[in-house]
Design a protein that fits this description.
With 138 residues, this protein is an alpha/beta fold. The chain has one domain (3-134): 2,3-Dihydroxybiphenyl 1,2-Dioxygenase, domain 1 (Roll). It has three helices and seven strands; from the N terminus they run E-H-E-E-H-E-H-E-E-E. The chain has helices at 15-24, 68-72, 91-101; strands at 3-12, 50-53, 58-63, 83-88, 106-109, 116-122, 128-134. Strands 2-3-1-4-7-6-5 form a seven-stranded mixed beta sheet. Strand 6 and strand 7 form a beta hairpin. The radius of gyration is 15 Å and the shape is globular. It comes from Cognatiyoonia koreensis. InterPro entries: Glyas_Bleomycin-R_OHBP_Dase (IPR029068), Glyas_Fos-R_dOase_dom (IPR004360), VOC_core (IPR037523). It holds the Pfam family Glyoxalase.
């Protein structure tokens, strides 16, 4: 299974100010709309998100949501402090790897992002890590 850094998620109480900062100060730009994650708005698990990029790695600027775990029913909350995300070509193999290593994780499936099977877990310092795979939603 291969992992590649895909995005960094920063949570904020002011997404608009964060968007302006990263665009004006770091000169990040818009991502190709086809490359943006299709958020599952019916589930209400993710609020208004701003997407900026350096051309290789996306940044997802999201509202801080300390109650997200209660609504999602998941232990790991990716919208409390933010997270880093890797894309894999074998999510089931990666989940088996986590199981073999004794690393607990929250399997979000495609509940937050349509067509992405996502799992979230903590590193030893409590930072949230996402690993996802693009999956067929048909």
């Amino acid at each position: 299974m291969k992992l590649k850094l895909h995005h960094i998620n920063l949570c904020s109480t002011n997404v608009g100010a964060m968007d302006t900062f990263y665009r004006d100060i770091l000169l990040l730009g818009d991502e190709d709309p086809a490359a943006l994650p299709p958020l599952n708005q019916e589930k209400g698990l993710v609020g208004d998100v701003s997407f900026v990029t350096d051309g290789d790695i996306q940044m997802h600027l999201t509202p801080r949501d300390v109650l997200n775990s209660f609504r999602s029913g998941q232990v790991v909350n990716p919208l409390e402090r933010g997270h880093i995300a890797y894309r894999t070509d074998d999510i089931k193999g990666f989940m088996a790897h986590l199981d073999a290593q004794g690393v607990p994780y929250s399997d979000w499936g495609s509940n937050a992002v349509k067509g992405w099977h996502q799992v979230f877990f903590y590193d030893p310092d409590g930072n949230v890590i996402e690993v996802h795979q693009i999956v067929d939603t048909d």
